[in-house]
Amino acid sequence: MRREKPLPSGPARRYHALVDTDHIFHELFRDHPEWLRELTGLPLPPGCRGSSRVLKHLEIRCDLLLEPADPADPCYLVEFQLYHDHSIFNRVELARQLLWKLLNPSRDCRRRDFRPREVRTVVIFGSRSELPSSHGGCPPTSLLFIDELLESLETRRPDSPLLAALAPLRSPLPELEKKAAEHYDRIRLCADLPGEDREALGEIFRNLLLQRFKTKTYEELRQMIAELTPLHKTRAGRDLIREGIQKGREEGREEGREEGIERGQRADILDALEIRFGAVPEGMRESVEAASGQERLRELFRAAITSATLEEFARDL
In this structure, are 79 and 126 located in the same domain? Predict the structure, then answer.
């Protein structure tokens, strides 16, 4: 629910009550409810659709509404609350009742065989310091805290790209500036994510950086996250190199042929190029696929992770 947000004081300032942070969380979890499930442990079923819903009766906007495909599963109304406000639970309960009425029309409620759709509410605070003292008498609502959620996620999955994307929410500025490039590399080099998901998390990370470092220009932030840093100079890049070499060896052992090793090497070259530069031109892809010889392919892999541009790699190709 959108309102003008006062600047925080005391411990809450650590989480910065970022101006217009609600839309960042909405963008993050609207298309990827599974990331919210990973972060919070909420029992969200597969097939949830995320949206921001305006309840026109009172012009109340919900931060995030998750609607499972199966009408038998409950909907989740999620609010992100990064500043202290005693009215939050009253507003959430009012939104829940209006939403329940919207999802369960009166004509259906009169049918004996009708099963009303349940609406569960979740409020995610930056930290416990933002929890109003008046929360005790409010209707049942799941209360979660970003600092505790991120700490738990770091214990369960220290290499999670989601953890890296949300790092600006909890890291002190000096530490964040020092480790920004490492966090960003963990996102853009995550082989488990499709390219569009890496880009989505990368955009969230950059937006949060912009909100934390308000005096820096976008170009200064690009330099901070070392978008043009050669892969072999970053820890994540070195991990990628080791994984690529190991991947090629494993494929070679599985197939027991020289072709298997070289096939793995070619795949590693193309993976490195796609991670660093995005889509690889078809002609360049064909040239990589046509290259042969393990030593030659090793040279091309080194060029793929050290070249500053695709054009520079093409000269080695």
Answer: yes
